Amino acid sequence: MSDSEAGGTPSVTIYTDGACRGNPGPGGWGSLLISGPHEKTLNGYEARTTNNRMELMAAIMALRELKRSCRVALWTDSEYLRRGITEWIHGWVKRGWKTAGRQPVKNAELWKELLEETHRHEIEWHWVKGHSGHPGNERADALANEAIDSHRQQT
């Protein structure tokens, strides 16, 4: 999933979102990956989770899908995700995965997975207001909710 620009590093735009019915509750994540004329959608479900975990999973799984190093513009409506990976994570790592208040970082195992995925790519993290009509964000939201709905219909 990625087109090269004149033989250089491929560029990919990713939109991610997480959803949860109850917090905790059944949750889903969705990702839309776009590279040139190519699009790929991903989504997944967890029976008992939180919205923040689903936001992290959407980003992890989207980045994991990229088979080689890419220039990525990743759009999320989660300030938790964007600020966590661009600001807070550096302190967490220095403090051995503790917050400034010396508490264990919530979702540390997912933050570690996300950090590992980011090492392979050049990523610009962008925030978009959720449910504001932004097409990429709306599609990612729909994918996250489809994951929940399809699983609930199976049970």
From TrEMBL:
Pfam families noted in UniProt: RNase_H (PF00075)
Source organism, top-level taxon: Bacteria
Principal location class: cytoplasm
Protein name stated in the entry: Ribonuclease H
Alphabetical UniProt keywords: Cytoplasm, Endonuclease, Hydrolase, Magnesium, Metal-binding, Nuclease
InterPro entries the UniProt entry points to: RNase_H, RNaseH-like_sf, RNaseH_domain, RNaseH_sf, RNaseHI
Source lineage: Bacteria, Pseudomonadati, Pseudomonadota, Gammaproteobacteria, Oceanospirillales
Keyword RNA-binding applies: no
Family: Belongs to the RNase H family.
Substrates-to-products reaction catalysed: Endonucleolytic cleavage to 5'-phosphomonoester
Keyword Transcription: no
Enzyme class: hydrolase
Binding site for Mg(2+) 1: 17, 55, 77
UniProt subcellular location: Cytoplasm
GO terms of molecular function: magnesium ion binding; nucleic acid binding; RNA-DNA hybrid ribonuclease activity
Positions contributing to Mg(2+) 2 binding: 17, 141
Function: Endonuclease that specifically degrades the RNA of RNA-DNA hybrids.
